[in-house]
Specification:
This protein is α+β, with helices and mostly antiparallel strands and 73 residues long. The protein contains 1 helix and 4 strands; from the N terminus they run ββαββ. A 4-stranded antiparallel β-sheet has the order 3-2-1-4, with no helix packed on it.
Length: 73
């Protein structure tokens, strides 16, 4: 199984600011920082945002807490 690391951001569009794994092992990328993505997914806030499913086959262990921010280069 693949692991979610900073390497997934290599070659990603500049709008991608964070990523997480969903319960099916799919890589989902977001135009918002991790903290906002978590709040949105918990239905605490609603904002216009971009996301997309990018890849699959990732480890689903602790998928609920898998979100990471893209580190500045």
């Amino acid at each position: 199984m693949k692991q979610l690391t900073q390497e997934i951001f290599n070659g990603m569009p500049k709008w991608v600011k964070s990523a997480r794994i969903d319960k099916k092992g799919k890589l989902v990328v977001y135009s918002l920082e991790k903290s906002l993505v978590t709040r949105i997914l918990n239905n605490e806030i609603l904002l216009p945002w971009n996301c997309g499913i990018w890849d699959s086959g990732y480890d689903t262990t602790d998928w609920q807490n898998s979100a990471i921010d893209r580190e500045a280069v």
